[in-house]
Amino acid sequence: MLIASSLYPCVAVACLGLAYLPSAYAWGAAGHEIIATIAQIHLEPDVLPVLCDILDPPSNPSSQDPNDSAHLSASRPPCHLAPIAAWADKVRRTPGYGNTAPLHYVGALDDSPSSSCVFPGSRGWAGRRDNNVLAAVTNKTRALFGALGSDAEEAAEALKFLVHFVGDMHMPLHLTGKERGGNGARVTFDGRVTNLHTVWDSLLIAHALRIVPSNYTLPLEDAAGVEVHLRGAIYDPYVRRIMHEGFGAGVGPSEGAGRFEDDRWLSCPTEEERAAARRAKRSAVWDVIVSMLRFIRGWLGLGYGDNAGTMPSLGQVLERWWHTTGDEERWDSDGLCPYAWAREIHELNCAFPVWPPELDEHPSALLSELAEEHGCSCSDEAHDEHHLNTAAEHDDMHANSSGTPRPHPDLLELDTPRYAGRIRKRWLVERLLAMAGIRLAGILNALVAGDESAHLSTSL
Description:
The chain is mainly alpha-helical. It has helices at about 10-15, 30-40, 45-55, 65-75, 85-90, 135-145, 150-170, 195-210, 225, 235-245, 260-265, 270-300, 315-325, 325-330, 340-345, 350, 365-375, 390-395, 415-425, 430-450, 450-460; strands at about 185-190, 190-195, 410-415.
């Protein structure tokens, strides 16, 4: 646990606390289920029955009347995607699925919001190559397409992972490794100690659910295509609001409300744009090679001696080449481009910023700072696997009988007009949830029914 510096040893501060802390995941279960519900609303009519058959194969497929399935899908969906949306979080610590933990996030070694956002920068990605959420979205899409109509069990698992990973990819803090995606950054929210990751995965959505206008507790008029896919969940009014104010004709009081630019959300860079990106990366590698040659010329007395600097090692050249070539080529195509989509979302960590600049002015709030101060280290592999709870949070829960949290002036409060207020005013969380739902629906429509399915299969 994280406890004030001078009174407790390293073990109490950070290291052993990771062994027994409760979990925190991207968007929380509610966020993932909201994304899946929005995606289901936007599926083509013939797609959902196919997905439901994958998740719960019929005992006698040959006896099924396709017309019955179409009618059932129009009047009452044969299943809901929301219940499977958080499955990948539930199994990640069970036998056989431990290796999936790194697939929920991606982090660049040079990335350090809010001062510097690079994706990935010259040193590339942390962790093993292609062992991250961007590669996982492409790989699970491929796996689902390959298993359609042949291996129901493999298809079902790929579908459950894909529904979840598309959601993870749209949570900005799952795209940075700094302080384990914000899990190691202590803050307060409404006076209570938590961490930046939890603010984004749970607390902002929980607040949004509480302030939904009462008219959204009732079914929307002329919105049967929305209502049929709701299942009486606590977040149904929130989904109605997103669908009405975000996709419909109604405009709410929020600056970000109104019709979303959903026609742009499914677009990917053209081949010409990807070729230009490849040329820029080759240029970056060439710059390192030129620096090496200039150093050699100076060392041999052939000129440039005063400006030769430090010679880059062959390892640096290879590292630059390895980490800055081919990622988009492996992950992105004309119809599916998780890297391009995530790059814009990652920019929010600095541009909004999701990562408050003031947080770096509170070193006592950062796990890495305290761990370094006490001479211990904790594995970066955890990222979002652990909700880095603190003794202060425990104190808050037992502060007094009235439930009033103890003051923590050393920590940054985020439930303020300047931070949480701007997020709500701009409808930032709602836009990200909707964007994830639209993209998930686009992928599933293309795989199962759309004209893009043939193109998607070849491009993958």
